[in-house]
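Customer ticket, subject: "Can you confirm the structure for MFS transporter?"

Message body: Hello, I'm evaluating your service for our small team and ran a test protein. I'd like someone to confirm that this is what the system normally returns, since I don't have a reference to compare against.
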Amino acid sequence: MMNLNKNKGQVGLLEKIGYGLGDTAGNFVYQSVLLLLGFFYTEIYGLSTTTVASIFLVVRIVDAVTDPLMGAIVDRTNTKWGKYRPYLIILAVPYAIASVLVFTVPDLGPEGKVIYAYATYTTLMLLFTATNIPYGALTGVMTSDPKERASINATRFMFATGGGLIVTSLVLPLTTYWSDPAIGYRNAMILMAILSVILFVICFATTKERVKGLVSEKGKGNFIRDIKFVFKNDQYRLVALATLLMVSAQTIKNTTQLFYITIYVEDAVTYSALFLSIWMIGGMIGAQLATKVLDIMDKRKAYIMLLYICAIISAISYFVGNTNIILIMVIQFFVGFFNQMIAPIWFTFTADAVDYGELKFFKRMDGLTLSFTLFSLKLGLSIGGALALTIMGYYGYVSGGVEQTLKATNGILFVFAIVPAIVFVLTALVVSLFKLNSKTIALNAVKLQELRAK
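Agent reply: Thanks for trying us out. I re-ran your input and got the following:
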C-alpha cells in the first residue's frame, strides 16, 4: 500500500499562515454579521425584530440558488493560478465595499430603509458566497493528507477568530468614538474593509493548489446531475445537517450576546467589548489546540464530546446572576474556547466526505460540495438569528433602546443559555451517525493516493 507521505504536498508554516489570513479577512465581515448586525439593525438602524428576522430568512432563498451555482462555476474554473485562488483577489474589493454598505444607515424613509437593508445584505451574502466557496474548497486541494488538512484548519480558525477579536476589540470601541453611532459603525467597517483587501491579496500570493481529482471537471458534467452526485454521498448529507444545526446553535448564542451583556449585566458599556473579546481570545487558543485533541482521540468522538461540553457550558450561564461579573467572563472564555476547538475538526469533515465520494463514485467536486456546506452554514446563520430574535419578540422584547420588562430580560437569558444547549445536543446526535472516523478517513486517503498514482 502506498505511503501517504509521498507526493502528498507538504504545506509549510508560511503557507498555513497566509491561508489563515484569508479567513481573518473573511471574519471581519462574518463576525460583524454574527455578533453585531442583529443589534445594529434593531438598535442603530431602527428595524423591528420581525423585520430583521425576515431579512435574514429571505436572503437564504437567494442563497439556495446562488450557492450551488457558484460551486459549479468554481469546479469548472481552470486558470494558470488554479481553480480557487483567483476568486480571492478578483472579488476582494467588491466584498469589502458591500460590507461597508450593510453597516451604513441611509437617509431614507422607513420603507426605503427596509429595501436598502434587503438589497445590501443580499449583495454582501452573494459576495460572501463567491469568495468563501473557493476559499473553503482550497483546503482540500492544498494537500491530500488528512492530518495536514487538520493542521491547516487549526491555523486557519485561529486566524479567523483573530479577525473576530479585532472586530470586538476595535470595531465596538470605534463605534463610540463618534457622537452618532451610525457614523461610528460605518467608519469602523471602512477600516475593516481596507484591511480585508490587503489580507486577501496575501492569501492569494502565499497559497498553492496541489491535489488533482481523479476526473477533470473542465467543460464536463450537467449541473443537476452534479447536485444529485453530491447528495448521493450519504456521509456528506450528515455533514451538511450537522453544519446547519451547529451553526444555528452558535448563532443563537452569538446573536444574543450583546443583548445579554447590555440588559442583563450591570455597567454594560464598560464590559461589552471585553465580554466579546474574551470569547475570541478563548477561541484562538481552542482552535490551535484542536490538533492536540486529534492526537489522542478519534475525530468523530472528539467532535461529539466537544458538542456536549458546549451544551453544558451554555446551560450553566442560565444560573449565573448579573452581579458575578468575573464568573460571567470565565464562562465566556470557555464558551469561545470549546466552540472554536470544534471549528477545525468540523470543517475537515467536508473534505473527508469529498474523499469518501471520490473513492466511491470516482468523481471529485470540492467547489460544489463546499457550496452546500456554506449554504448550510448560512442557513444556520439565518435560522439561528431569526429564531433568537423571534423568541425574544415572543417574550416581549422591544427594539429602540427602551427599558425592557422582566419577562423580556428573562427571555433573553433563556435564548442565550438554554436554546443553544438544546441545539448543540441535537448536533451531537447527528454526528454520532457518521461513518467517518479517524481510521476510515486515513484509509480512504491512502486508497486515493494509490488510484491517483495509477
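A couple of notes from the result: Confidence is low (pLDDT under 50) at residues 1-8. Residues 13-210+220-453 form a domain with the Growth Hormone; Chain: A; fold (CATH 1.20.1250.20). Feel free to reply with more questions.
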